[in-house]
Amino acid sequence: MSRKLRSGIFAALAAGGFAALAFSQAALAQDAERVRVRGTIESLSGDTLVVKTREGGDATITLKAGWKVGGVTKASAEDIKPGDFVGVASLPKGSGPDGAIEVLIFPASMKGTGEGNRPWDAQPNSQMTNATVSNAVKSVDGHTITLTYQGKEKTITIADETPIVTLAPATNDDLKTGAGIIVTGEKAADGSISAGQVAVGLNGIVPPM
Question: Within the chain, which residue ranges are assigned CATH 2.40.50.140?
């Protein structure tokens, strides 16, 4: 991991004791291959987590000593205000603004985490922008937000059906069979995956990241 989560969005939070959820939007360039595992929990036994991936296979993840869990909970476009810090995955839409495919509203304590724009793997050609909301407008077709980051500006439209979430405290007890999950881990040469952090959807939410 880079010294200041150069491309990440999870950092340990003092408040509430939940840690490092923004790891799921990390584009972390290190020696080990970084992989994101998305799906639902099949089992958790000790430090071994088995996930039914969204591609239909099983992934076994070894959780590192001291591993942390953070929660993902539902939010809405009305919760997005100027001055908020957000992570928005988006796709280009011809000559107009990009269209959001998912939005994460960061807690105020995480403002500035992983600021910037980078490729993302939610869909082909998608990008992730971690930035401050400078303007938010509601229209008949949904919402439009203007983001500022590193001296740049980007406008993104948010359709009414776009998944919007924020972060919340979670515990190991939330890691129940069937819960939606996303894990950013390290894949070794032998194919084994290890991770120090887990993000789980709360109250039936499937983490859209």
Answer: 15-72+167-201
